[in-house]
Amino acid sequence: MVPVDVWEAERPKPGANLIIGFVDVGLVGVIAARYMVEELGMKMIGGIDAPSELPLSPVKEGVSQYPIGIYYKHPWLVLLPEVPLPPSLIYPVAMAITDYGERRGVERIISLTGLANVQRIRKDPEAYWIVNSVELVPELEKLKEVAKPLRDGVLYGPTATILKVTKTKGIASITLLADAFPEFPDPGAAAKVLETLKAVYNVEIDTKRLIEDSEKIKARLQEMAARAKEMVVERGQPTMYA
Question: Which domains does the chain have, with CATH numbers?
Fold first, then answer.
């Protein structure tokens, strides 16, 4: 298996909740995780890398970064990938994250992600949850007014792998999802998953700025759709937009 390295400058206290936001649909996980780091004033305490598979170094303000940063402010740990994971790294990184959480005695591993929905431009996002054990269902059922279980479907990619790996290791794992634009960054969906996280675990995050950003993006997309519709009508071709 591809070697994955984990570095720490500081060891977190046991009992934290570990948040993961992968580069995924609508960039929901990354936007939500980064916003959480900024809003809570979290400190980078380490990082994760696979040097043989990631011959790169993200740079911010002249300083090189880990491909996956580890941020901490008790009782929260956040893993923030700076780059998409190639398929060859999904399983090794999921194993490294799960092992790290197990060593540090985390309470839960919580993934934040988007659920592609082509109708997203016409409506506000809805939130959903998935757990890796029936014992966690009562913990999420109190979200009836905020989120509902994802009844059926198939999950792919890093988030799905985290759910599988944690299930085999007996580590509590939860995925919070929100409807998201399939091809555009969606801060509104990121705000929705953070509001869901807030409803369950009382983390103090004000998502107003994300919602404002979402409205701006939605307005631009609606304008683009309207212009495309006008062009089609002018050319006398069948419209593709309802």
Answer: 5-206 (3.40.50.10900)
